[in-house]
Amino acid sequence: MAKEPVIGLRLETEIVEALRKLAEKNGRDPVEQIVFLITEAVADAGLLSPSRAEWHRLRESLILRFVYKAQKITEVEGWRTDIIAETARRMLEDTTWRADYERLIGADAYARNVKLKDVINPALGRRTKLRLGAETGKVFAVRQPSIFTASSHLHPEQPAAEAAQ
User: Fold this and answer.
1) Origin, by domain of life (predicted)?
2) What does the angle CA 102 – CA 68 – CA 26 come to, to the nearest 5 degrees?
């Protein structure tokens, strides 16, 4: 797979802060907001192919409808830890949303190994979590060894063989 070009930006602090506020208001992270604004601008200027502009707008429409449904579920039923999965289940029951989703990914909604699902599905979850103010990263309880048993230099009398275990 070819790597996409990377463009660096140097923005004034005031612009960055405004961008963060706009991104938060729109339920996006700042980088996603920049990509969205640029894509909208080049589409509006007629510089994208009609099919690419349509794909961009369809993707955004799918995400907005998904996020809206998650908000409604949360408002009516309260917070759920499985809000993303439950929203996806309900959206796939909506024949219009499902048809649009399948058109976007070019495959059946339940098909495996569809590359475009790697683009849209994380965006659905991330944007929903951002909009709902939910945790945006997975949190795992990791058993941590005691620093005293894991750091042999803290126990100079410990034999080297024991420290290696």
Assistant:
1) Bacteria
2) 100
Domain count, the chain: 1
- Which residue is associated with the tokens 């998650």? 70
Give the pLDDT of the chain (165 residues) as one tens digit per residue. 467 888 888 989 999 999 999 998 888 889 999 999 999 999 999 999 999 999 999 999 999 999 999 999 999 999 988 999 999 999 999 999 999 999 999 999 999 999 999 989 999 999 999 888 886 555 555 555 544 444 444 444 545 555 455
Q: What is the token pair recorded at 116?
A: 């475009």
Range of the domain at 72: 49-135
112 is a domain residue: yes
